[in-house]
Amino acid sequence: MKFTKMHGIGNDYVYVNCFKETVEHPSEMAIKVSDRHFGIGSDGLILIKPSEVADGKMEMYNADGSQGAMCGNGIRCVAKYMYDYGITDKTSISVETKSGIKYLDLTIKDGKVDTVKVNMGTPILKAVDIPVRSEKEKVIDESVMVDGKEWKITCVSMGNPHAITYIDDVKNLEIEKIGPKFENHEIFPDRVNTEFVRVIDRNTVEMRVWERGSGETLACGTGACAVAVSSILNGLTEEEVTVKLLGGDLKIFWDRIENKVYMTGSATTVFDGEIDL
User: Could you tell me if 188 and 219 are in contact, meaning their C-beta atoms sit under 8 angstroms apart?
Assistant: First the structure.
């Protein structure tokens, strides 16, 4: 199987061009290729497929084999792949995902895609639709007990569920201990991605993320969007926010009039290869 290793600010996936390749049992394949010792090494597997309703289709699988609905860093790399490898010659494209069709604008540098702006769609705030079990319609700055400690969380879905909590020190957080406690908490029926956030100023925050099915990753695009929405809802930032992640920065803008979230960031090709299945 031919593949391409790509990353969006450190959030790395193995990409397969399913216009040419066929991948059987993708969940099992995701586990195999994601292993950083015996496989290629990645946060998961993303298949780039033909679509009847868009320029292409993204099908993503986490490192544990579970299928995800959307990946903000991954979809930027899908757009870069489609342009750089000649699937499309357009600089504004559409990509079908499990959470709907996303629209992307590509910035070209020296004939290759440099950065991608993604219309990530409308944030979902209704608790039952995220989903999160709550007596309230929305979960904004609400208390939850996790591992014997009270945390304040705001819950947002950007096609997948996120719980955002604000802390004073993200660098020294023992995320490998608390992350799984959040991910598998009983109030999250589909598990949850958790963002631990420190507000730097009205236009800048830093975050670490524990992703369901993958553990801590260097970046999470949908998570950065959820953090921006949460920060605005809680009155902590303006509507345009730079989110600093371990792998780099993402610029997020929540257009309150359109009620759409826009994410701009880089996409990088690491290498092409073949793996014997």
Answer: no
